Amino acid sequence: MARGKNKGGKKEAPDSTKTPSSESQPSESQPSTSQIPTTEPTTTIEDDLGGLGLGESRKRRPRKKPTEKQESAQAELSNPKLTQTDNSKAEVPKTEAPKTEALKPEAPIPEACKSEAPKSEESKIETRGSKPESAADKPQDDDDGLGLGLGGGGRKKTRSRKPKFTAVETDIKYSKAPSSEPAIPGPSQSKPITSTASQPIQYVQNKPEVKAAPAAPVLYKIPDKILSPPSRTVPILTNYLAMKITKPLKIYRYDVTFKPDKPKKFIAQVFKLVKSKEFPKEILAFDQTKNCYSLTPLPKITTERYGVKVVIKDMNGKDMPFEVSFKASGIVDYNNVLKHMATGGSSLNAPTDTIQCIDIVLKQGTLESYVKAGRQYFMRPASPIDLGDGLEMWTGLFQSAIFTSKAFINVDVAHKGFPKNQPMIDAFTRDFRLDPNRPMDRQPGRAVEAFNEFIRGLKVVSKILGTGPSSGQLREHICNGVVDPPSRQTFTLENDKGPPVRMTVYEYFMKEKKYRIKYPDLNCLWVGPKDKNIYLPMELVEVAYGQARNKQLNDRQLSTMVREAATPPDVRKRKIEEVIQKMNYSKNQFFKTYGLEIANEFYQVEAKILEAPTLEVGPRQFTVPKKGVWQANCLLKPEALNSWGFIAIELDPRGCNYEDIVSKLMNTGRQMGMNVTQPKMACFNIRINDLHKSMLHALEKQVNFLVVVVSGRGRDYYHKLKQIAELKVGILTQCIKEDTATRRMNPQTARNILLKVNSKLMGINQALENRSIPQCLKGGAVMIVGADVTHPSPDQSNIPSIAAVTASMDTKCYIYNIELSIQTPKKEMIVQFEDIMVDHFHAFKKSQGILPKKVFVFRDGVSEGQFAEVMKSELTGLHRAYQRVAGLNAKPEVLFILVQKRHHTRFFLPGNNARFNVDPGTVVDRDIVHPRELDFYLVSHQAIKGTARPTRYHAVCNDGRIPENEVEHLAYYLCHLYARCMRAVSYPAPTYYAHLACLRARSLTYGEIFNNNDLEKNPKRLRVLDSMLKQSRMFFV
């Protein structure tokens, strides 16, 4: 199945929010403890509020253009021999390791698919088949596809030629179309730590294995689903519109280049002018980047470049010349996608060029008045919501073509923060509440910091003053920051009639522009190229209109966005229907001309409702969740909190509510069967610089666990605390935000704190009752693996990406080991996956005495265009890792599932129940998913606010041929084993733990500077102190 790719922006407005967590850091995205119980943390602000829960919000990952390495991955799929890579880092004792053989795909790639889809920002394509993403996001939010599935073929490269700027009358000719021993000593030890070792971050260099590198044959073919017996279904609605291809058309494709190619905002205007002059009768679709499609051959254009010169006017009426050149680049055949749909073609070789063309056609003519932001389009509402700190919320539209056994358009609403179009002085005074009559260094630090963050990279417009020829014209600049006030900021003015003159900005405007600055003590803005000194008084600058920025929202903005955008299902459905009515898809003549007919009604699909598992929540105590929630007054395996201490950072006993916190923890612990004693030590008003000493003092007092109340005065206190505790001292900590501590703690908050504390002490909160354990988890030792990669926001290009892989170490699939890796920014594949899995296998064998027979992987963060790459890199790496530990002939039974949250699929109940979300356990595995591959949507959680976002699961490997229904139950049941709350979360616990581990690694590396070039060659493994791991593998929960 294939779909138009969702290239996401960084932050979008949600249908969901983060639920505060009891361990909350004072930084932007850390939740508050008081509300831990509710749900899991959101992946993007578009997520529903309800199944998210307790960690930081994930940054959405933007979809990337395919790299050369990614493009080569598809070509390797058809290569019958998989060559040995140096990834294993293994030394061969005496004989050479045999080369790895890859089995041939069962079905050859159709010749019609062997043309390369053009790469454009507008039209990157997702091939529906498996993954989460980025998304990503990845976003991601957002978001990073390879555009694979073209059989490794591509258009022939032609020599670059200079465009001809004369009409050429001719016929059109088209080109063919080593790993270290794990630092994880056995089970948890209850004895307090006595070591006071202090050391920097541990970056582990992988050591070569003694065994030869494996040569496991890998079948690069996504397996077919193993059908289950029919089950009862219920009808639900989805935000898909049925689409019909009425004509098997052949569309002519052209590459378009612009010189200059900036500013981007003029590209669409230039193309429109060229079309009106050169091709007035042709019906064209253009992606506003480089790809143009036509129903008929364009006159004068062949495989040679044909150039046109045009001139447009800028905002000041000034001429702007452009050279636009066209080149025929192939023919797109609708029959390719029709054949793919009819035969259930593999996700690895979907006809992405045809899908891309249809996706661009669907956007042509309907979205011209919108502001484009990634794959979404926005328009300023009549009364936008104020998000604070200079931003307002705009409402937008997402649409994408999707092809399974049927054709659809996925239509959804989106929300995003845009800077207000207003005078900068108004933003300064009204939005940030700063005084324009005082320098910024004499004003509240937080407001000044927020303003500086707001203007950095902001587009601003200024009007030229004076009486010269440019007087009254507008200039657009990029803002770099602030400098001294006009009365103090000096610069050198070049003088044609004499030597350069040194003067202040105030003097310049007074003498040269005859303008008296109103706020001489207010800092100037530094704008334009960073190698130039262009200073403007703030009062003469305006914030430019319609800027789609990728900066991360702060806590206040995110909270407002979530509150306004996370609408109930009936409200969201009504908004989508209003968009559909406005677009009037069914009567759009442009679509019909291109052979597309689109319905205006939501598509009805049949869904299954899975029964919730029975959970063991205490000794001989069981419960069945209702609507994804359960209540339990005990713990399955409680651990005593009897050697603990209390620390308040920059707070006194009354300020941190010390007595109330201790009392609530002891009383609630008693109710849950958990022995919580009085703390052995309590320290107050501890400065962050003295925290290291306090923790060493705690070890001397035989304390092995600290509850820490973190003052809100320092945004980086949480990061520093975790660095000291886990990298320098080696002691477990549970953080509570000041806001939570100062409120009177209620029993529910105390209960959620103790759920985390018990897990950190290696206790077990709940487990599947024996009769609820899926059959696939029986018949041999099983390791459940979760994997994720988190990326920095687009404005943080110098910060690395972090990969985390979790692996279950016990028979109840509750205790997890984590391995962390730091790699180059934006890299989605886990570079050290093979070495990480070697360490996990060693740890599992040390814990269980045997190696796992089955390995089930739930991989988050992979975009749909990266199926081939994840199979080539990580699936192959898993097999090699196993053979490095178990021997060359060993082969585990692997189930490798890609988990996706970054999509725009939503489900709605019909009729009078429209105001409610679908029930937890709702599964859709037909019509809107791949017809042959193991691919399904699952809503596993109850959304507390907003419209529930289903999670998509797509298997790329299923060695054990586990039936579809059993895999669905496995995924659903794992969503009930998340330690932080008594709720089913929106995706499996191991994947959630991988996300939490990434966030912890982000804190542990906070403030460290990395060399990205070095990371490209030598990605780093990150480890906490051994003494931490001796106490608990679950320290990150």
From TrEMBL:
Source domain of life: Eukaryota
GO terms for MF: RNA binding
Biased composition range(s): Basic residues: 154-164
Biased composition (Low complexity): 16-44
SMART domains to which the protein is assigned, alphabetical: DUF1785 (SM01163), PAZ (SM00949), Piwi (SM00950)
GO biological processes: piRNA processing
Domain Piwi: 705-1006
Comp. bias intervals (Polar residues): 72-87, 187-197
InterPro entries attached to this UniProt entry: ArgoL1, ArgoL2, Argonaute_N, PAZ_dom, PAZ_dom_sf, Piwi, Piwi_ago-like, RNaseH-like_sf
Domain (PAZ) ranges: 423-545
PROSITE patterns in alphabetical order: PAZ, PIWI
Signal sequence bounds: none
SUPFAM superfamilies: PAZ domain, Ribonuclease H-like
Biased composition, class Basic and acidic residues, residue ranges: 88-104, 113-139
A matching Pfam family: ArgoL1
Ranges for region Disordered: 1-197
Family the entry assigns: Belongs to the argonaute family.
Protein name: Protein argonaute-2-like isoform X1
Protein species of origin: Bombyx mandarina (Wild silk moth)
Originating gene: LOC114241313
